[in-house]
Design brief:
The structure is a single chain. With 306 residues, this protein is of the alpha/beta class. Helix 8 links the parallel strand 11 and strand 12. The longest helix has 18 residues. It is globular, with a radius of gyration of 20 Å.
Length: 306
């Protein structure tokens, strides 16, 4: 099967397995031995080049409103699919014209790929188009799983609604250890007064830095769940919400319902117990191999097309 990925990313071609910035969208291309093209290049490609196309639409879509993207996409790919971007209704913050364009585009797909179970129901109900999961995946060829760590907690986002950084900070504080946050483009300057921050780094460096931490907390909106997944690979227990697939599948002992901050705090305190911590660590390591390894991802992809 020839697979083409299309997004606003500027690179073109295959992704080598030693790529230094193997974030989720790049890892998909690598794991599936697919070829990536920037969206503007689609008009230069020959007819029926790919059996399946996977398109990741940009968050800002004004430049696409008058461009025949669907026509070009169907010309190049025998089956056309679109991948959900961010949480399921993020696109409804766009101008009305872009919302209508987005809906019409995804409703014209052969299949919509989603991050989480809750997203499957939403997009299928909205469009009546078949929906399937495209799970987050890691390429781990040269990564050493964590074997020693200190008493430090990491939260998976900044103090904005989408990342739930304030809530994560409150729960992380229960552990009584230094708290560090990742850096995103939406970080507020005042955060530096109460948190340590990891500067923006390439994915490969991020994975090594993450291995130094003891516990992760991610109480944000449901999207790709890469933070929860990355923690699992290293055997780091992560406290998070049930509506994120990587959380509920990989960290069942530290998962709470959306908004259950009290229960999340209880779990944080339970993680101070060495036996419970060890159980959570062993559980997530085992479940990573069983449910989210690259081999499992490729098998899932092949199953979608049987």
């Amino acid at each position: 099967m020839k697979i083409g990925f299309f997004s606003e990313a500027g690179y073109e071609g295959k992704v080598p397995r030693n790529h230094p910035n193997m974030r989720t969208d790049v890892a998909w291309v690598c794991a599936l031995n697919a070829t990536h093209h920037p969206l503007p290049k689609i008009q230069t490609l020959p007819d029926n080049l790919y059996d399946v196309g996977v398109m990741i639409l940009p968050k800002k879509r004004e430049m696409l409103l008058k461009y025949p993207l669907l026509e070009q996409y169907r010309r190049v790919c025998k089956k056309v699919t679109v991948m959900q971007e961010s949480y399921y209704n993020y696109w409804q913050d766009s101008p009305i014209a872009e919302q209508i364009w987005y809906f019409n585009f995804i409703a014209s797909m052969d299949l919509i790929f989603c991050h989480n179970d809750i997203d499957l129901k939403y997009y299928n109900g909205l469009t009546n188009v078949r929906t399937e999961l495209l799970p987050s995946v890691m390429i781990t060829d040269d990564i050493v799983c964590r074997n020693e760590w200190g008493d430090a907690t990491i939260i998976g986002g900044n103090w904005v609604r989408d990342y739930g950084g304030f809530d994560s900070y409150q729960v992380a504080s229960e552990l009584g250890h230094p708290i560090t946050a990742v850096t995103t483009g939406r970080m507020k300057p005042e955060e530096e007064e109460v948190l340590n921050h990891i500067p923006w780094v390439m994915w490969r460096e991020w994975i090594d830095i993450l291995s130094q931490f003891n516990v992760g907390v991610q109480l944000g909106t449901a999207s790709a769940g890469t933070f929860n997944l990355n923690c699992s690979f290293h055997g780091i227990p992560c406290i998070g919400y049930f509506n994120v697939n990587t959380q509920k599948i990989l960290h069942p002992l530290t998962t709470v319902e959306v908004g259950e901050i009290d229960k999340a705090k209880e779990i944080a305190n339970k993680l101070k117990d060495d036996n419970f911590y060890k159980l959570c660590m062993e559980t997530t390591l085992k479940r990573y191999e069983n449910y989210y390894s690259e081999k499992v991802f490729v098998k899932h992809w092949n199953g979608v097309w049987k």
